[in-house]
Design a protein that fits this description.
Blueprint: H1 24-46, H2 54-70, E1 94-96, E2 106-107, H3 110-124, E3 134-140, E4 143-150, E5 153-159, E6 165-167, H4 170-173, E7 191-200, H5 202-214, H6 223-231, H7 236-240, E8 244-254, H8 262-271, E9 281-283, H9 286-299, E10 307-314, H10 317-323, E11 325-326, E12 329-330, E13 333-337, E14 341-354, E15 360-371, E16 374-380, H11 384-390, E17 397-402, E18 409-413, E19 439-443, E20 449-455, H12 462-473, H13 485-493, H14 500-513, H15 523-535, E21 538-540, H16 541-547, H17 555-565, H18 568-580, H19 588-594, H20 601-612, H21 614-626, E22 628-630, E23 645-649, H22 657-666, E24 670-672, E25 681-684, H23 690-698, E26 701-703, H24 705-714
Parallel strand pairs: 2-13, 21-22, 23-24, 23-25, 25-26
Antiparallel strand pairs: 1-6, 3-9, 3-10, 4-5, 4-7, 7-8, 10-13, 11-12, 14-15, 14-17, 15-16, 17-18, 19-20
Helix pairs in contact: 1-2, 14-21, 16-17, 18-19, 18-20
2-(butylsulfanyl)adenosine is lined by residues 102-104, 137, 139-140, 144, 160, 197, 249-250, 311, 330, 333, 335.
Length: 716
């Protein structure tokens, strides 16, 4: 199934005229087509700004290919049909955020909001009816930025990037008039990362587009794209001409406390000369939250800028600090998203995509349609059961919906408009790859049949291999710039890269391959890819583990494993021991891994399966020869529990169990659910039973909740 855009991207070379026998009108048509496609490619790949629908684009390429088939001597080496490789976006330098930039969990209805509040109360050990004062703010639909001020002077600005590392956009940000170069007043901390959203207002967006249209320039699809495109200009002079705005709403690293509540903090940001959103408000009760939501929804169209929901933040900063975050989302805030936008269009086809883990996902190819400012031409149908339940057929008119950045979905079929000849969709029984491996229906843990159909080919299946490679190079894994989906598809198809280790040997092999001499490649572009690969030869343990792509091992789990085992040697030893043990007698390594808080049998079984396969192990070992894996970050040795394994048991009276665990983790301890000889400390509250006894018999240090709090206090 061809992706909507073929694995094709351009190294922009100068077109040279070539003698041809084709008649003049054909030559003219050909030159026009080439020019249009190249423009569309530049818009799509370089400026994140498609100027035509996927269907129109595909149509143009079909015409180009047909012309070239009829007149082979027309084909020039720099024709879009021959070119490969995206011109890498010339880099902005990386910036390490002082404190990670988090993203928000979503709530979609009142019940989700209720659940958010209940979790906050549980974590803080509050009464189920306790008031949790919150501040609500509109969720601005722009792009977040972190601005570092030192002694009140703006010294650096960065994009969010992957949350840990962003891109340096200082020069561009200096052109945004809402953003002060120097903070007003004097009571700012010596060093502070002020965070907020860069956006473009509706009027400014309309004017910008009208001007662009009149001048034959680039027209943006929506204000968010316009803002993002403007910030990512390499020439700050261009950014300066773009009407960008900024709202400050949060902060990262700070050298000293500057407020006690979210409300005070907003007032402080404003007093330092930052624009803050005037529509923020304090809400003490759920009814006021609902009111705030309905109110903002009602006024959405009059605000003058795009918003996509309401952000709810716990007002007390002390509570925010205690709540901390889980994975990439704070426990103290949630985004209550606006209802999804819906539209109707036609299903042109249903394709099957095979994912990294072999799951077959049906995708509806749609007549392109604009939903909330974005052109949608594909929507997920999730799985075979969903297609059957909704009875989606090729040719059907369907209702689709798009909520924020979630993949568009097919909601329902408009039965009244079903074509007479539409037939039920037959879900394939074989993988669409050349091996035609049988598809198996997943069994859930309870033994019942799950909804997912999987290709049973594992690493033999070329789709799964390719998806593994994409995952490997992706942002949260090895993060190799310039080695995106398109490039990997191409390298894979040419057999240049078949497994991760090959990525790192590519440069050496290129002496023979000479990729730069292939049609469409250039010396510089190939150099850039090799440099990007070389830059990632040293990799953090957590990224390495995540990059391996075992099922159920997401980046959060990978971080837990890295923190627990510290080095790849330790972890690999445990993995081998687990995988080699007989199924009847789980190894000690397995018991130990299972004792890590938040790691359950599903993760352990997946890892065992992965490392039980000799070919996976061999591939990992080949990879290890190529890269250098950094041990997990040295633990804060100032903390008395750093690196220790702590178990909590019995009732805690001042802290909820969740908060106690989160505290221990912040201090560099590992939290385990069971006592063993590896346990360093047992924190036992009233009612503790067998764990207390086991700890006593093993001579493990045991303290009560007060003892724990004193210990934590000592750590500061
Ligand atoms: S607070 C730790 N407040 O929404 C929480 N975010 O998925 C940090 N956003 O990346 C975010 N308006 O780009 C916050 N008033 C607001 C916001 C807001 C928009 C964006 C921001 C963030 C994303 C969260």
């Amino acid at each position: 199934m061809p992706p909507a855009r073929l694995p094709m991207f351009c190294w922009w070379g100068m077109m040279t005229d070539k003698p041809t026998s084709a008649p003049a009108n054909i030559r003219k048509q050909y030159a026009q087509l080439v020019a249009i496609i190249r423009q569309a490619d530049a818009a799509y790949y370089q400026h994140d700004h498609p100027t035509m629908t996927d269907a129109e684009y595909d149509g143009l390429r079909q015409r180009l290919l047909a012309l070239e088939a009829d007149h082979p001597d027309l084909v020039r080496p720099d024709s879009p049909s021959q070119t490969v490789g995206a011109k890498p976006a010339a880099a902005f330098s990386p910036v390490q955020h002082g404190v990670p930039m988090l993203s928000l969990d979503n709530a979609f209805d009142e019940q989700d909001v209720e659940e958010f509040l209940a979790k906050v109360r549980r974590f803080l050990g509050l009464d189920p009816e306790a008031v949790v004062a919150c501040v609500t703010e509109p969720k601005i639909d722009g792009l977040s930025a972190s601005l570092r001020y030192r002694q009140g002077q703006l010294v650096q600005a960065a994009t969010r990037g992957d949350g840990r590392t962003g891109e340096d956009i200082t020069a561009n940000v200096r052109t945004i008039t809402d953003i002060p170069q120097t903070l007003a007043g004097e009571d700012w901390p010596d060093e502070i990362e002020i965070r907020g959203e860069i956006y473009m207002g509706h009027d400014d967006f309309a004017t910008l587009n009208a001007r662009a249209e009149a001048e034959g320039g680039k027209v943006f699809a929506n204000p968010r794209n316009a803002a993002a495109g403007s910030v990512r200009q390499l020439d700050p002079k261009i950014t300066a001409q773009r009407p960008l705005r900024f709202f400050a709403y949060s902060w990262g690293e700070v050298s000293g406390a500057f407020a006690d509540t979210q409300l005070d903090a907003i007032a402080q940001l404003a007093s330092w000369g930052h624009a803050v959103n005037p529509r923020h408000q304090l809400c003490e009760y759920k009814a006021s939250l609902i009111n705030a939501y309905q109110n903002i929804l009602k006024h959405r169209a009059d605000l003058g800028y795009d918003i996509d929901g309401l952000v709810i933040k716990v007002n007390s900063l002390d509570w925010q600090r205690r709540l901390g975050h889980v994975g990439r989302s704070p426990r103290w805030a949630v985004a209550w998203k606006f209802p999804a936008e819906q539209a109707q269009t036609r299903v042109l086809d249903i394709d099957i995509q095979v994912g990294r883990t072999g799951a077959l996902t049906p995708v509806a190819r749609l007549q392109p349609i604009t939903v909330g400012g974005v052109v949608v031409s594909n929507a997920t149908l999730h799985n075979a059961d969903e297609i059957e339940r909704k009875d989606v057929r090729i040719g059907d008119q369907v209702v689709i919906q798009r909520a924020g950045d979630v993949i568009p979905q097919v909601v329902s079929v408009v039965m009244a408009e079903r074509p007479a000849d539409a037939v039920p969709y037959g879900f394939p029984q074989q993988c669409p790859c050349d091996l035609k491996t049988p598809v198996v229906r997943e069994q859930t843990a309870g033994g019942t049949e799950g909804a997912v159909r999987r290709c049973s080919g594992e690493m033999r299946c070329p789709f799964q291999r390719l998806e593994h490679l994409k995952h490997f190079a992706s942002r949260r894994a090895f993060d190799i710039e310039g080695l995106g989906a398109k490039q990997l598809e191409l390298f894979f198809e040419n057999d240049w890269v078949k497994e991760p280790a090959d990525i790192f040997t590519l440069e050496a092999r290129n002496r023979d391959l000479k990729i730069e001499t292939r049609e469409g490649f250039g010396v510089q572009s190939v150099r850039n890819v090799f440099d990007a690969i070389a830059a990632r030869k040293t990799i953090d343990l957590d990224r390495f583990v995540y990059a391996l792509g075992a099922r159920h091992v997401g980046d959060g789990t990978a971080r837990l494993l890295a923190r627990t085992y510290q080095s790849w040697d330790n972890l690999y030893k445990a993995l081998l021991e687990m995988s080699n043990a007989s199924p009847e007698a789980p190894s000690e390594a397995e018991t130990e891994m299972l004792s890590i808080d938040q790691i359950g049998q599903t993760v352990v079984d997946s890892l065992k399966g992965y490392f039980a396969s000799a070919s996976s192990r061999a591939a990992v070992e080949r990879l290890c020869e190529q890269v250098s894996i950094q041990d997990a970050e040295a633990i804060d040795t100032a903390s008395p529990v750093a690196g220790k394994t702590v178990v909590f048991t019995g009732k805690l009276e001042q802290l909820s169990r969740d908060e106690a665990k989160a505290m221990a983790e912040r201090l560099g301890a590992k939290v385990s659910g069971s006592v063993s000889k590896k346990t360093d400390l047992l924190v036992a509250g009233p009612g503790a039973g067998s764990k207390l006894k086991t700890a006593a018999s093993l001579g493990i240090e045991t303290i009560d909740e007060d003892g724990w709090l004193a210990l934590v206090q000592q750590a500061g």
